[in-house]
């Protein structure tokens, strides 16, 4: 069950030197707000995913230090060492150094933080980012297509801001946007359909009622030729406004509760149950997609959940290694370290 055995950091956020052993399936870190609990989860996430969920490298260096170092030891995988000297970051794995964590050394992580509970009422951009992170862990090709789409979109938007932009000099970027946009749209729809297969059932198990909930992906599934034609037809308008008005970068994911938008109809408790259900399904579909049980990071989430939902959380992740941070001690969980 265990995936990692230890994490150690130097000059990382508020920590000058810190090491944590993760010998048990569940590791509990207790501390006041501002004591550096989330920073430990951030370091774990950085070593396993290759990037932070919170900030930039410069922000991760402890004040008055000129470098940070993170070392993560797995149970049965290569150790990951990350060094950042203020301008250059390198990943050291199996004696080989690289500027990015190679895909074969990345490991899936389920991160659950209080902000996730506001996902239903957040902006479309935040929801897109949330699901992009999830789908990228399930599918390497999704991650690659997303990077290529983002690069093409930036290049096209930069050209549109230039008064000399013409349909001809944006056309090559239109082709890339159409190709990768169509691919991403189809993958998003397929993934959302998979989540919806069990979302209501898992929600009902948590909420103990007969309500219905599902996700609605607002993106229009089009073929590549139609996508390209729409970009071409929109050129003049896009040139005036200086940005690309059509594409999957404007899509949204709507949470539907009993056939209406959850943001306007579901109670706070019902929304928490929806998000809990989504998190449980995430772990399941990642495991099904890549054959690995994700590591679960729970960042100060117990303060936002009542006792019944806390029990569901621990019960549903019982087959996963979990690292928990909290300001108080959840019932039946011994403290491993107090900050």
Based on the model shown, name its key terms.
Glutathione S-transferase Yfyf (Class Pi), Chain A, domain 2, 10 helices, alpha/beta, 20% strand, globular, five-stranded parallel beta sheet, 339 residues, Rossmann fold
β content, as a range? 15-25%
Q: What's the overall average pLDDT, rounded?
A: 93
CATH architecture of the largest domain: Up-down Bundle
**Strand line-up across the major sheet:** 2-1-4-5-6-7
From the alpha carbons, calculate the radius of gyration and give it in angstroms.
22 Å
Distance between the termini: 26 Å
Report the top-level CATH class of the largest domain.
Mainly Alpha
Q: What coarse outline follows from CA principal-axis ratios?
A: globular
CATH topology of the largest domain: Glutathione S-transferase Yfyf (Class Pi), Chain A, domain 2
The total tally of domains equals 2
| CATH level-4 homologous superfamily of the largest domain | RecF/RecN/SMC, N-terminal domain
How are helices and strands ordered from N to C? EEEHHEEEEEHHHEHHEEHHEHEE
Short description:
The chain is of the alpha/beta class and 339 residues long. The protein is 44% helix and 20% strand.
Characterization of the model:
- The chain is built from 10 helices and 14 strands.
- It is globular and about 60 Å long.
- It has 2 domains: 150 residues, 3-Layer(aba) Sandwich (Rossmann fold), CATH 3.40.50; 175 residues, Glutathione S-transferase Yfyf (Class Pi), Chain A, domain 2 (Up-down Bundle).
- Strand 4 and strand 5 form a beta hairpin.
- Helix 5 crosses helix 9.
- The strands form 3 sheets. Strands 2-1-4-5-6-7 form a 6-stranded antiparallel β-sheet, covered by helices on one side.
- It has 339 residues and is an alpha/beta fold.
- The longest helix has 41 residues.
- The chain is 44% helix and 20% strand.
């Amino acid at each position: 069950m265990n995936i990692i055995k230890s994490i150690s950091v130097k000059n990382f956020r508020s920590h000058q030197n810190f090491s944590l052993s993760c010998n048990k399936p569940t590791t509990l870190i207790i501390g006041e707000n501002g004591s550096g609990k989330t920073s430990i989860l951030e370091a774990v996430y950085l070593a396993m995913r290759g990037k932070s969920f919170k900030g930039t490298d410069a922000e991760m260096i402890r004040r008055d230090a000129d470098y940070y170092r993170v070392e993560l030891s797995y149970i049965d995988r290569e150790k990951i060492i990350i060094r950042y000297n203020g301008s250059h970051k390198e990943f050291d794995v199996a004696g080989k150094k690289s500027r990015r964590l190679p895909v074969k050394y990345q490991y899936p992580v389920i991160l659950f933080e209080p902000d996730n509970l506001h996902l239903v009422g957040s902006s479309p951009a935040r929801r897109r980012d949330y699901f992009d992170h999830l789908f990228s862990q399930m599918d390497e090709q999704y991650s690659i297509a997303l990077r290529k789409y983002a690069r093409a979109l930036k290049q096209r938007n930069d050209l549109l801001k230039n008064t000399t932009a013409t349909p001809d000099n944006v056309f090559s970027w239109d082709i890339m946007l159409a190709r990768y946009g169509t691919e991403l749209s189809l993958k998003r729809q397929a993934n959302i359909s998979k989540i919806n297969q069990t979302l209501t059932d898992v929600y009902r198990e948590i909420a103990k009622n007969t309500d219905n909930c599902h996700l609605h992906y607002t993106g229009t599934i089009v073929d590549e030729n139609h996508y390209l034609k729409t970009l071409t037809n929109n050129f003049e308008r896009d040139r005036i406004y200086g940005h690309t008005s059509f594409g999957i970068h404007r899509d949204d994911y709507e949470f539907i509760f009993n056939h209406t938008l959850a943001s306007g109809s579901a109670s706070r408790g019902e929304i928490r149950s929806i998000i809990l259900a989504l998190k449980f399904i995430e772990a399941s579909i990642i495991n099904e997609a890549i054959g690995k049980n994700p590591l679960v990071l729970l960042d100060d989430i117990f303060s936002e959940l009542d006792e019944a939902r806390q029990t569901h959380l621990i019960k549903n992740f019982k087959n996963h290694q979990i690292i928990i941070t909290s300001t108080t001690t959840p019932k039946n969980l011994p403290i491993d370290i107090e900050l």
